[in-house]
Specification:
By secondary structure, the protein is of the alpha/beta class. The chain is built from nine helices and seven strands, in the order E-H-E-H-H-H-E-H-H-E-H-E-E-E-H-H.
């Protein structure tokens, strides 16, 4: 399935160490002809870290997509009744966002976008990035894996020696995951070890 003309929501949460890779994938989506609608969580639009500043993120996102990001709960809510997205991808999805999503909490623009989008029985793609994916958040990831219309970008342990509970998605597989999700199928294999592939 081609992405030309597809309306894709791209929601960023606060895993700042993955942002540069995510910007590359946003560009790939645009290059593939997708119409990308950016959405930012409260953290991603307000926290300055060693990886960059909110102003830098806003500028880069607008440069790539040609659109101002959705930055409030009230501006994300119409995604549901208007039903204009074909697929929504949370890239990256922190453990905090995954936990709230799994438990029906809607207190950020990204979570509202996800809730609004899923009421239309359309696919939600998750690109996980969390230091506790094999810890406290494992149960939440399990719930999401077993939820209707939710699909995961393949993920694995990125540093099992220093961060044994950490899970990070292979973001280079975002586009094929989205293509499969649009057909309501999970890209396989979903678990890919970082060290086996190198």
């Amino acid at each position: 399935m081609k992405l030309k003309g597809k309306k894709i929501g791209a929601a960023l949460t606060g895993s700042f160490c993955t942002f540069e890779k995510m910007f590359v994938e946003l560009q790939h989506l645009v290059d593939a002809g997708a119409d990308v609608y950016p959405i930012m969580s409260d953290s991603s639009q307000s926290i300055e870290s060693r990886f960059g500043t909110p102003d830098t993120y806003f500028k880069k996102i607008k440069e790539i997509t040609g659109k101002e990001p959705i930055v409030s709960i009230e501006s994300a809510e119409p995604i549901g009744p208007k039903g204009f997205l074909d697929v929504l991808a949370i890239i990256p999805c922190t453990g905090n966002t995954a936990a709230k999503l799994a438990n029906g909490i809607t207190d950020t623009p990204v979570l509202m976008a996800a809730k609004a989008h899923m009421r239309n029985n359309k696919p939600l793609v998750i690109s996980i990035s969390t230091n506790d994916g094999l810890g406290m958040n494992l149960k939440n990831i399990g719930l999401l894996c077993n939820s209707k219309n939710i699909y995961f970008v393949p993920f694995g342990q990125d540093n099992y020696e220093k961060k044994p509970n950490s899970l990070v998605a292979h973001v280079e597989l975002l586009i094929p995951t989205i293509e499969m999700a649009l057909a309501h199928k999970q890209y396989q294999p979903m678990l890919i070890d970082y060290h086996q592939e190198n």
